[in-house]
Amino acid sequence: MASPAVTLPLLDVSELTIRRESSYVLSRVHWTVRKGEHWVILGANGSGKTSLLKAIAGYMPPTDGDISVLGETFGSSDWRELRKRIGVVSASISHLCHDEDPALEIVAGGLQAMIGLWGQLRAGDKKKALASLGLVRARYLANRRWEVLSQGERQKVLIARALISAPPLLILDEPCSGLDPVARERFLQDLRHLAAKRSAPAMILVTHHIEEILPECTHLLALKDGKVEYCGPIAEGLTSATLSRTFSAQMRVRKSGDRYSLHGLSV
Ligand SMILES: Nc1ncnc2c1ncn2[C@@H]1O[C@H](COP(=O)(O)OP(=O)(O)OP(=O)(O)O)[C@@H](O)[C@H]1O
């Protein structure tokens, strides 16, 4: 009898330890992300969320442990090539965008993992950039310059940029920061629209606010002091007890419909 097909994880982190200046930034982290999963990463300031993402993107070499992404192993593959296949949206990319560049060019730059284009935008790339803007319902922004875009519009342009090369993995590092409550909700609806697509990449969403967790999120990674506090299905893990341990404070979580909110905090 044929054995069931085993699909390779998109991301596999094992015993990951990062030590800097005699202290542990991450300590023996295990984490696996598979196709079809959408993850949320929660943790207090300084718990190691950004460091974990940097390690995955190859910007923070591990002291110990293994990282493999899309079947490639850190240390034995060309990570500069691999980065083109991981979509990343973070404040550091936003800061590199040029004020005068139209959204369409910023999105097209994602094809080369570049900020800014050299020369004319080719017709084929223009078409791809428009299609990518369409994925976040933002085609109308195509000709607007970066400098005039609102914070929410900028995030959508950066997501379109990250999506243009159809990455299997999309990392969103605090994508809602700086958005007002209404803009945030609209933005989250657009993300839901994307997450619901069959072709959607596996998403990794880093946030400080459980209200931002999409119903489509399937798994939770909670970090505390560089260690894994919880790693598994969100339905079992996103509880008052887990959050209280993760943030070292009394926290009460409520689930209303398919969204979470905080209903009590004592420090
Ligand atoms: N290169 C480094 N050298 C020394 N310490 C570092 C280095 N990078 C990160 N750290 C430390 O590791 C800890 C985790 O930092 P990290 O930025 O990953 O946290 P975070 O969970 O993303 O925090 P925040 O929610 O505030 O963004 C912090 O105490 C930070 O000072």
TrEMBL record:
ABC transporter domain mapped to chain residues: 8-250
Gene3D superfamilies (UniProt xref): P-loop containing nucleotide triphosphate hydrolases
Lineage start: Bacteria, Pseudomonadati, Verrucomicrobiota, Terrimicrobiia, Terrimicrobiales
A GO term for molecular function: ATP binding
Annotated protein name in UniProt: Iron complex transport system ATP-binding protein
InterPro entries found in the cross-reference section: AAA+_ATPase, ABC_transporter-like_ATP-bd, ABC_transporter-like_CS, P-loop_NTPase
Keyword DNA damage in annotation: no
The keyword ATP-binding belongs to this UniProt entry's keyword annotation: yes
Keywords annotated in UniProt: ATP-binding, Nucleotide-binding
Domain of life: Bacteria
SUPFAM superfamilies (UniProt xref): P-loop containing nucleoside triphosphate hydrolases (SSF52540)
